[in-house]
Structures are given as C-alpha cells and as structure tokens.
Write a structure and sequence with these properties.
Blueprint: E1 3-5, E2 12-14, E3 18-19, H1 32-44, E4 49-51, H2 60-71, E5 77-82, H3 96-109, E6 115-121, H4 131-142, E7 146-152, H5 156-162, E8 168-174, H6 181-192, E9 196-200, H7 223-226, H8 244-255, H9 264-273, E10 280-281, H10 288-295, H11 305-323
Parallel strand pairs: 3-4, 4-5, 5-6, 6-7, 7-8, 8-9, 9-10
Antiparallel strand pairs: 1-2
Helix pairs in contact: 1-2, 1-10, 5-6, 8-11
This protein binds NADP nicotinamide-adenine-dinucleotide phosphate.
NADP nicotinamide-adenine-dinucleotide phosphate (NAP) is lined by residues 19-22, 27, 51, 81, 121-122, 152, 172, 200-206, 209, 211, 237, 265, 282-286, 290, 293-294.
C-alpha cells in the first residue's frame, strides 16, 4: 500500500482507503460480523483512512468503526459527514443548532472526544454561499471538537466554490472511468490550494468490477434497485448516474483492456490513482475478499498510455453525453 498527503493536514493516508456506506446499509442486507471482518482486512492491507457518515445505517457504520478502533493499535483516520439527516434537506437546516447536534451524535457513535475530519454531506448548492456555515466549522475546530473539515459535493462547481474557504482541507467527489469531468477543471485548482481529493463511487456502485449482468437482481433495500432513477437521493450516486445498459456496454469494452492477472476492479482503481491530484479512492467493501482485492490495486504498475487514452475515448464516445454537463 502506498500513501499520499491529505491536503494540508499532517496525515498521509492509504491511496486505497475504505468507504463505509455499504456496511451501514442501503446496499441490501449486511451482517456486522462480516462487516467487521472487512474492516479488519482493510487495516491488515495497510488502509489507514475510513470514510463514513452519521446517516449510514443511522450510526451503524460509525459504531462498527469505533469497535474496530478499540481492537486495533494502528493509527486510523476517520472521516465522517453531517447534514443528510436533515428532513427536509435544506440549506437553512445547516445551522449551528442542527450541526452541533449531528456532531455530538457522531462523537458518541465514534466513541471519541474529537472527530478527525468532518465533511458537509452533499449540502444544497446554496450552503457553499453561506460563509457562516464554514465559520461554525472553524469554531468547532477551535473548540477541539473536530480536527479538520472538508466537503462532499455532487458537482464540480460546488467543489470549486468550496475550496475558496481557506480551512476546507478535502473535497469528496465522484470520480471514476465514467465520471471524468473533475479531472478537466477541478483537479488543478485543488492541487494549487493543496486540497485533498477523495474519489468516491470509484467502482460505479460495483459496475466497474465487471461482475454485473443485464439480469442481475438487487434487494429491495439496495439503492441499485430503489434509487435507479434518483427516487431517494441524487441519481448520480447510483451507477454514477449512467444508465444500466450503457454502463454494461462500456464495461465490455473496458474488459478488453484489463491485463491478465488483474481484476477489472483493480484496473478501475488503478486508473483513478493515475491522477496525482487524487489523494485516495474510497471503494466500498462488504466482504474481506473484496477489500483485499481492491487494496492490491495500489501495488500495480502504472497503466500504459494506450489504456489511459482508450478509457478517455470510451468516455467521450459512450458516457460523456449522459453525465458531463450534469455534474
Ligand atoms: N454523498 C456522499 O458523500 C457519498 C455517496 C456515495 C458514496 N460515498 C462514499 O464513497 C464510498 C464508495 O462509494 P460506493 O460504496 O457508493 O460505491 P463503489 O465503491 O463504487 O462500489 C462499492 C460496491 O461495489 C461492490 N464491490 C466492491 N469491491 C468489489 C470487488 N472487488 N469485487 C466485486 N464487487 C465489489 C460492493 O457491493 P456488492 O458486493 O453488493 O456488489 C460494494 O459495496 C462509500 O462507501 C462512501 O464512503 C459518499
């Protein structure tokens, strides 16, 4: 496992880290014993950064991470998020009273007196134009409740606006073979300001593992079933917002580029790591075997130029029309 600096924080984090949404819920049934085994595998594979949120299983994901931290001596940086428990999810809801309550709950769930990294959880665009929200986070840092903060965004323009605030250390954004726009506009700006980038949905919700088929079935409580058309939250979070048939056809083209001895998941993750601006990819993993496979992507050699060009051409031809101007 290789490590990269996270923004201007003192931390160097594993370039393949762990996304802890699936172990909380919304991906079909999960079993805490297996989830903990997946978390332990991550640490055994060199992962030292875990991304979670208060809303993942309403504290379940955070509590599993607290349990992991009690068991292990290694330094583990935990990034959580706040905001998505608001209902309705409005910019006005991002006020001191609500955010204080969310942070107190995360502190309790994570069994800590100071949160490593707090991210605003894909707030409405207007929140980025409310400096008082960022001022509140500054005060939480001064009060010793949080060490650092960042944002998780839906759109490139939100990311560009967020990094105008000097204490935003990280931006989490969807970046994968099917969502390439962040590399065009945003990465250079983030590098200039030394802002860390967390590449989320790196496997396009599992599509870029190459295992899904036209007749794959998803449980009723799996967002790949219930949010296929954005019924519950932003459609971009499910298969990157690319329709299922288009994705399957693109995956067949990618399959021809994957070298022998490498899985498509590893290839897709290594593609992300080719971008220096990215601090880490945070693939979700429910089982130890998935986590071990994903972490091994860090040890692969760089992808050849021909493969990088082929993925770009594939994006331009098949995917760009569906996503490029939407996020
Ligand atoms: N708004 C936000 O801030 C936001 C939104 C989305 C995600 N995130 C963060 O980003 C993380 C990653 O995104 P994601 O979990 O949505 O999507 P993802 O990482 O693209 O896909 C994860 C899913 O793919 C499957 N998978 C993973 N590794 C595999 C492997 N090696 N072989 C086969 N299948 C594999 C697993 O599901 P199955 O086994 O069920 O197929 C897993 O749950 C999340 O966990 C979360 O921390 C944040």
């Amino acid at each position: 496992m290789k490590y990269r600096h996270l923004g201007r924080t003192p931390w160097k984090v594993s370039e393949i880290s762990f996304g802890a949404w699936a172990i909380g819920g919304a991906w079909g049934s999960v079993d805490d014993i297996e989830s903990l085994a997946a978390l332990r595998q991550a640490i055994d594979s060199g992962v030292n950064f875990i991304d979670t949120a208060d809303v993942y299983g309403m504290g379940r994901s955070e509590r599993l991470i607290a349990q992991l931290k009690r068991e292990r001596k290694e330094d583990i940086v935990v990034a959580t998020k706040a905001g998505r428990r608001l209902s309705p999810h409005t910019a006005d809801g991002y006020n001191e009273k609500n955010l204080t309550g969310f942070l107190e709950d995360s502190l309790r769930n994570l069994s800590t007196d100071c949160l490593d990294l707090v991210q605003l959880h894909c707030p409405p665009t207007d929140v980025y134009y409310r400096p008082e929200v960022f001022g509140f986070l500054d005060r939480m840092m001064e009060a010793g409740k949080i060490r650092h903060y960042g944002v998780s965004v839906e759109r490139v323009e939100e990311a560009l606006k967020a990094i105008e605030y000097p204490n935003v250390q990280t931006v989490q954004i969807i970046f994968n073979c099917f969502r390439q726009r962040p590399a065009d506009l945003f990465f250079a700006q983030a590098q200039k300001k030394e802002v860390g980038i967390l590449a989320r949905v790196p496997l396009s919700s599992g599509m870029l593992t190459g295992k899904l088929r036209r007749d794959s079935q998803f449980a009723a409580d799996d967002h790949r079933n219930f949010n296929r058309h954005g019924q519950a939250f932003d459609v971009g979070e499910t298969f990157s917002g690319v329709d299922y048939e288009t994705s399957l056809a693109a995956v067949e083209e990618i399959r021809t580029l994957v070298p022998a001895g490498v899985s498509m998941a590893q290839f897709a993750l290594r593609w992300i790591l080719m971008f220096d601006a990215v601090t880490c990819a945070i693939p979700g993993g429910k089982r130890p075997s998935q986590v071990a496979e994903n972490c091994a992507a860090s040890d692969l050699p760089p992808l050849p130029d021909a493969a990088m060009s082929a993925i770009r051409a594939l994006y331009e031809a098949r995917i760009r029309p569906a996503v490029h101007q939407r996020w």
